[in-house]
Automatic annotation (TrEMBL):
Ca(2+) 2 binds at residues 254, 257, 262. Ca(2+) 1 binds at residues 75, 78, 80, 82, 84, 96. GO terms for cellular component: extracellular region. Binds 1 heme b (iron(II)-protoporphyrin IX) group per subunit. It comes from Oryza glaberrima. It is found in: Secreted. Keywords: Calcium, Disulfide bond, Heme, Hydrogen peroxide, Iron, Metal-binding, Oxidoreductase, Peroxidase, Pyrrolidone carboxylic acid, Secreted, Signal. The record marks 70 as: Transition state stabilizer. One of its GO terms (biological process) is hydrogen peroxide catabolic process. Its EC number is 1.11.1.7. The gene is LOC127765927. Residues 33-334 form the Plant heme peroxidase family profile domain. It catalyses: 2 a phenolic donor + H2O2 = 2 a phenolic radical donor + 2 H2O. This is Peroxidase. Its cofactor is heme b; Ca(2+).
């Protein structure tokens, strides 16, 4: 497909501006080559195959939703959307997923991709990248849990390296300042509005107590142990779930609608009910509060903002040409 388009553009009859177009096309190789019908001829049923697997996995556990979406984010933020997060460590290589700030990537996300890839391989061997399987599964998990359905761009290759040492500083942390968060998103081509929209991924899934216990017990000791931006009732509830020094349990990120991918997340923030400090910050900081308010107020606006932003995210650092391939098995390099 690429070769065809290329040879057309590179015909000898090309005028000088045609040559410029070719240069522009080469410069953009990667994200610009993504297409929603990329597998039309090589694996026409890929989307329905993945959808079937995601439906089954979601029926088995709602943890499928948050863990699959999180996997996609983590993958794209570290070295681009290239499936590098799916690789398991070997004796000689500690892979991305085993980095200290892997955000406790959950088994269910990996398992969804593994099953979906196996089903896709059975229908169309060696055609579809693991990265694209993850992108489709992420879209489906979102749409099946009440979030927006959006056409998913495809044509990413799987990357050829995955290193834990590459992760530090690339993923948003619960204790980042707003400026730090903005910078991390910006380095991935995402603006502040995209960042607020994408944060709705915390409308589903769980977080460990250790990610927010400082807000409950060590905010500004000794006079102010608890973060005052936390709703008091919510703080008391969380203290019950996460006693100081207790086991590192997991808590639902959105207590109101835990299995729905919806804009309740933003209403929680308005109510002092953001779980992580980096969630509540979006409301307390006046640079992002107007976006929170507008997404809280309108489901259609939320759908559009989220879909636009995640499509943009899916274009980050896409590998093409010799920089990638199609893995046979998602957790090991070919
Ligand atoms: C891909 O398939 C869809 C649906 O069958 C069709 O609408 C579209 O035109 C096809 N695209 C190409 C490039 O064949
Ligand atoms: C995430 O990293 C921790 C070590 O920091 C490791 O114990 C855990 O197994 C990793 N999670 C996955 C899913 O690999
Ligand atoms: C943020 O949390 C990490 C642990 O997740 C810690 O290493 C770091 O020191 C914290 N940064 C600040 C500014 O508190
Ligand atoms: C935002 O808040 C800062 C201080 O927190 C204040 O100086 C600034 O005027 C505010 N900006 C707007 C647009 O409200
Ligand atoms: C941010 O990007 C979105 C598209 O994802 C765009 O609609 C919006 O206008 C941008 N916002 C700013 C402030 O540039």
């Amino acid at each position: 497909m690429h070769a065809k388009r290329f040879s057309k553009m590179a015909r000898p009859s090309s005028s000088w501006w045609m040559a410029l177009l070719v240069v522009a096309a080469v410069a953009q190789l990667g994200a610009s080559d993504l297409r929603t019908d990329y597998y039309n001829s090589t694996c026409p049923n890929v989307e329905s195959i993945v959808l079937g697997v995601v439906k089954d996995k979601m029926q088995a556990t709602i943890r499928t939703i948050g863990s699959t979406v999180r996997l996609f984010f983590h993958d794209c933020f570290v070295d681009g959307c290239d499936g590098s997060v799916l690789i398991t460590s070997t004796a000689g290589n500690t892979a991305e997923r085993d980095a200290p700030d892997n955000l406790s990537l959950a088994f269910e996300g990996f398992e969804t991709v593994r099953s979906a890839k196996a089903a896709v391989e059975a229908a169309c061997p060696d055609q579809v990248s693991c990265t694209d399987v993850l992108a489709i599964a992420t879209r489906d998990a979102i749409a099946l849990s009440g979030g927006p359905f959006f056409p998913v761009e495809l044509g990413r290759l799987d990357g050829m390296r995955s290193s834990a040492s590459n992760v530090a500083g690339k993923l948003p942390q619960p204790n980042n300042t707003l400026s730090e968060l903005v910078a991390i998103f910006k380095s991935n081509g995402l603006n502040m509005s995209d960042m607020v929209a994408l944060s709705a991924a915390h409308s589903v899934g769980l977080a460990h107590c250790s990610k927010f216990s400082d807000r409950l017990y060590r905010y500004n000791p000794p006079s102010q142990p608890t973060d005052p931006t936390l709703n008091e009732k919510y703080a008391a509830f969380l203290k019950g779930k996460c006693p100081d020094g207790g086991p590192d349990m997991m808590v639902l990120m959105d207590q109101a609608t835990p299995a729905l991918f919806d804009n309740q997340y933003y209403r929680n923030l308005q109510d002092g009910g953001g779980l992580l400090a980096s969630d509540e910050l979006l409301y307390t900081d006046n640079r992002t509060r107007p976006t929170v308010d507008s997404l809280a107020a309108s489901t259609p606006d939320f759908y559009k903002a989220f879909a636009d932003a995640i499509v943009k995210l899916g274009r980050v650092g896409v590998k093409s040409g010799g920089k990638g391939n199609i893995r046979k098995q998602c957790d090991v390099f070919n």
